[in-house]
Amino acid sequence: MTSRPARVGDQIRVEMADLLAREVHDPGIGFLTVTQVTVSSDLQHARVYYTTMGDDRARRESQRALERAAPFLRRQLGRRLRLRRVPELQFCFDESIERQDRIERILQDLNTERAGRLEASDGDLPGDDERDGST
């Protein structure tokens, strides 16, 4: 069984993604993905986690655009969801995907380095000078 805040968060995530794709026409938002929504236990506050393509400047612009669109989004959520009170929206950039990419790059570098060491050590097999016939 899931808790009500988790169910409401999932519902908000689905509706928010649809609203951002179809209803919000702010060019500052750009290519944005809603990754998760966490809702407080009293259903009064919702933290909307998102990712966006681009550098820090694009991330800041998306944050500002989301904050500008927050009243509109909240009104639309109120119309779409059956809640007594629509939670206040707070937008947070989701850094977990960036961290995951960084870890993946580090693991790939380690594997490449390990493969390079194995190739280098294959040529240095012990006893090679005894077999070359020079003794």
Mean pLDDT: 86
- The name CATH uses for the topology is GMP Synthetase, Chain A, domain 3
CATH top level assignment: Alpha Beta
Which spans of ≥5 residues are poorly predicted at pLDDT below 50?
A: none
CATH superfamily: K homology (KH) domain
What is the molecular shape?
A: elongated
Number of strand elements: 3
Q: What is the architecture at the second tier of CATH?
A: 2-Layer Sandwich
Structural class, judged by helices and strands?
A: alpha+beta
Largest sheet: 3 strands, mixed
**Total individual domains:** 1
What string, H for helix and E for strand, traces the elements in order?
HEEHEHH
Tell me the helix content. Answer: 55-70%
Using the CA coordinates, give the radius of gyration.
26 Å
Strand order of the largest sheet: 1-2-3
Into which percentage range does the β-strand content fall?
A: 15-25%
> How far do the termini sit from each other?
77 Å
Tally of separate helices: 4
Outline the structure in words:
By secondary structure, the chain is α+β, with helices and mostly antiparallel strands. It has a single domain, classed as 2-Layer Sandwich (GMP Synthetase, Chain A, domain 3), CATH 3.30.300.20. Helix content is 56%, strand content 16%. It has a three-stranded mixed sheet. A hairpin with a 5-residue loop joins strand 1 (32-39) and strand 2. The radius of gyration is 26 Å and the shape is elongated.
